[in-house]
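Annex B.
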Amino acid sequence: MTEALLELHGHSRRVGLVEWHPTTNNILFSAGYDYKVLIWNLDIGEPVKMIDCHTDVILCMSFNTDGSLLTTTCKDKKLRVIEPRSGRVLQEAN
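Coronin: predicted C-alpha cells.
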C-alpha cells in the first residue's frame, strides 16, 4: 500500500493511540495529545463523538470484550472507566 485510503482530521495535536472498536465495524478510537478521545465512523471519515474528560495526555486505552466500556490511563495518574456511547465517566481512581 503506497497511498492513504482515508485521512482523518480532528485532533488539534498529534495522535498517540489508536484502537478499533472490538465489535463494531469501521469504528475507530483515537487519543491525542489534545487530551481528547475521538470516535470515528470510517464509513463517513468523520468523528461522531468526542470524549473530553482528561486533564493530561492519555497514555493507554482499552475496551472490555463487548466494547461497552473504555478504560483509559492518563498522565494525571488517573484511571477512568468510560461509557463510550455517552462519553460519561463511570469510575475514576488514582
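The chain has a mean pLDDT of 96. The CA atoms of residues 56 and 66 lie 27 Å apart. Further annotation is deferred to the next reporting cycle.
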